């Protein structure tokens, strides 16, 4: 019986190694990177209404929701390469749009406070960022990978979802489109 179990265990181990080797060959030796959106684009909106998030930002201040034409809700992390890629775009986008009633709100996921503050200061974020340590909001919004952005109109409806790193042209186009729709009777 011991011999049978020993042979069975050896075969199972050999089978596992064969699968591992085949998977490595099929992937070209590249490791998977779960949780990152490296391809960008508009995605289907799964949830349609935005609920104000009552959290403190990373500096312990309450997040304020004045009357906004557009809210850009961005899920990101300091360790995420596509998030790093778009950081300057979001920082500059906020500066460009803040006087036109556009709110940016950053939701840092699966990260630590020191890294987030360092990231925020490095890229000059001037908008509120808070930490979603438990992933509560990520689950609520159906975030599957980082970065993901949700664009909310003045009525609190999520009208666009963008996955992956965004560039300034796309960011501007989406915000302009939502503002134009907001102005329709």
Summarize the model shown:
By secondary structure, the protein is α/β, with parallel strands linked by helices.
Which features would summarize this protein structure in a list?
six-stranded mixed β-sheet, alpha/beta, 41% helix, globular, 185 residues
Give a verbal description of the structure.
The chain is an alpha/beta fold and 185 residues long. It has two domains: 1-31; 33-183, Glutaredoxin, CATH 3.40.30.10. The protein has helices spanning 2-26, 81-97, 113-123, 136-141, 168-183; strands spanning 41-43, 70-76, 102-109, 128-132, 148-153, 158-163. A six-stranded mixed β-sheet has the order 1-6-5-2-3-4. The termini are far apart. Mean pLDDT is 83; it is low at 20-34.
